[in-house]
Give the backbone structure.
Amino acid sequence: MLPINRRAMPESRKPASPPGFDADVLGRIAAALERLSPPAPGPLDFAAAEAFVWYPASTRLAPVARVNRVDMSLLKGIDRMRDILVENTERFARGLPANNALLWGARGMGKSSLVKAVHAGVNAGLGAKAGTLKLIEIHREDIESLPELMTRLRGTPFRFIVFCDDLSFDAEDTTYKSLKAVLEGGIEGRPDNVILYATSNRRHLMSRDMMENERSTAINPGEAVEEKVSLSDRFGLWLGFHRCSQDEYLAMVAGYVDHFHIPVDADALRADALEWATTRGSRSGRVAWQFVQDLAGRKGVRLSD
């Protein structure tokens, strides 16, 4: 069979362009798509701030100009948990072995406030290295992007507390597997310069009703919830926060009043604070702060340092 000489092929027999083909139009479309696509994330200046928020949709770490936190001295009734978390964080900041921490328990008892206060306190105590410990907040719904965040943090000269507030999982939620891999089981593991702190109202990060339902419907009840319960086991520190007593609640109120110099009679303060807690049906650090905000407003005092 003789080879076909394509150069000698008549113009009429060469393949025609598809109907409606316009190279200029396609070129303009390609250029427009390139303009719409987000640029690759560039190197981040971690020295720009002490805290950042992770936005996985744009693979962006947004610096936080001013962190919403309270002074550690104002956190009352949680001395033991405070001391343990401070010691763990100080070891991590110095490059020594430290554990991931799960702060669980009663609502409004200062779990997230403690994480932010400890970060500020330890950072300030690093001397010449002050500011090298960064706090990065990841939202609960973005947990699945943790491996991508770890990749961005790995190998940088800074140390990072990755913080997730109000962490919990529902029955059909499988995003916990990303967190589980980062904590212990991934092939790369957690970077040496990253530690994870999480807060939750649930000790095992899942509701009791959900655990009981899985046990009752499983072929092997002992293994039904093991996979999800093992997630909380991978936090080396479990710090439990329990409802405060009346004396602890009043101490929280008094601490805020003294700190912000709110003029009020001691007996009137006690009566008003107890009435406020009674109307809300609970006592906690959050309730104490809400009362102090109301009191300061009535007294014309601004709550700013």
